[in-house]
Amino acid sequence: MSTTHHTTGESMSAEEAARLSPEEAMIAGAEADGVYIVHRRERFPIAGTRAEKRAERTIAGVFLLGFLAAVGFIVVFCGAVPYEWRLPGTGSQNYRYFTPLVGGLLGLSLACIGIGVVLWAKWLLPEEEAVQDRHDGASGMTEQVLMAGTLVSGFNDLGVARRSMLKTTLGLAGGALGVVPLVALVGAMIKKPGRGEGQSLFHTPYKAGVPLVYYDGRRVGPDDLQPGGIATVFPGVEGGVKDSDSPTLLIRLKPGQTVKARKGQADFGWGDYVAYSKICTHAGCPASLFEQKTGRLLCPCHQSQFDVLQDAKPVFGPATRSLPKLPLTVEMVDGKQYFTAKGDFPEAIGPSFWERP
Ligand code: FES
Known about the structure:
2 domains; four-stranded antiparallel β-sheet; alpha+beta; disordered N terminus; Rieske Iron-sulfur Protein; elongated; binds FE2/S2 (inorganic) cluster
């Protein structure tokens, strides 16, 4: 490495500048810009020492880990690892590890690439201290040529040409990470949406005779709620309370309130009770802020309002579709009445999507 030069960038012609080595051009260019390099030293003045190789191997290992994490993300996301996990000892807790796993792997991949780049700069690039004067106005041709030299010199400092291990591992990690945005599209085509055999986006676990239960599995009966009261209930089947399609809002109307039912759904309520999917038809938040007096149901996410007295029709905000209504009936068990479903929701619950009929 040489830090000597004979002419500053300001007094040099473009031809003279073009004859400088990239490092000389970088220093001359810096000085022409009022940047004076007061200290510059190679971290490893003798190339190829064991210490340099060790640093290189460590950084390559970090990039490799980033590559493996990105590949792991792709594999998990595409469903090569089953969506429904049940690790030993976790009982009926399905799906528990999918989201943390894809999030953790993506985070690890990004972190590894970031850490690898920082280590590369700290361990392998030359140490440099510079002071700079401010200047105004545009750069002339000479400055532009010197700037190009500065960029080439900076690239040479990276040592990409001779550090093939780092080049390969960074390329692997960056390449795998670059594929990640495509995975959401491609992965969704590989894995059919839905919850498994016999079920689809268009059905929930409700069907005729399925009891309505609280989160803890207790059955819900008509005596449970005060007029104007609401309760979140679920289908009383195995895994029903954990199913993302299941949350249902059971509402007891106040005396004098009636629901103007949708066509064909006049008998979906029972007594002064009605039940709707709790999943907002805008973007899927739980719509559960109920104002008893007006019969309005508010979704806290984007303020959609559904008028329960008009059968949960959207009357304000971005939602455009009424909340699906669950057909209700009751059955007697040990002399007490309990709610059961008369069938599934007649339409898909949740946000609209392109495939919806
Ligand atoms: S999710 Fe309910 S208003 Fe947007």
